[in-house]
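Onboarding guide, step 5: your first structure request.
Type a short instruction followed by the sequence, for example:

Predict the 3D structure of this protein.
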Amino acid sequence: MKHIARKRFGQHFLTDAAVIDAIVAAIAPLPGDAMVEIGPGLAAMTQPLVERLGHLTVIELDRDLAARLRSHEQLEVIESDVLKVDFTALASTRLSPDGAAKLRVVGNLPYNISTPILFHLLDHVAVVRDQHFMLQKEVIDRMVAQPGGGDYSRLSVMLQWRYAMENVLFVPPESFDPPPRVDSAIVRMMPLAQPPAIDFKTYSDMVQTAFSQRRKILRNTLGKWLDARDFSGEFDLQRRAEEVPVAEYVALAQSVQP
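The system replies with structure tokens like these:
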């Protein structure tokens, strides 16, 4: 029976064989990799991945699709909302032979909740080796953006302190059924081996405050936040949030964290 894409789950199924091959080549799965696929759907990427891996864990919310996937003996199916999945616990049950619990996470993320998924995974980044995701192209443009441009945003700053990221492949709407109304792309996210040490809550609050009114200079937003913390150091508040490099945000957070 043909599965009808469900709008409430943001389902758009990848059908272009050439694009699928290019994505799998970019991921470069190897036998024994501890890989998790988010939103496998109709298994367009799942099948070529598991053929190379030997075993694959998939996370699927749609119960009808999860039931289909369970018939594949090389798949472990977790029927759940991905935002409720504890990836750290998942990694601890899938140790590689040398004892390094590092997951490779891939998936065609539902575009309506892609940012919450990225932030959820940020909480578990210590057990992640790499991430390859299909996302709305404009989201990836924001993720990899540099200071000074309109795409540089809270998302850029929140992710770039912890990942090296690159846009590796463009995917047009006609590669899907049904076609989305936006362009898509594949992003590669590599956790930094030696990320700067910061208090994450302080960093998150600071960045959210800085970008809360991005058209205003930081004195009107971040200035008040710093005053409340008795900040007496040097930081140019005569700029807009989009003009400040990630390294400066990190240094500022380090100077005011508890």
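Each response can be followed by summary notes, for example: The longest helix spans residues 17-27.
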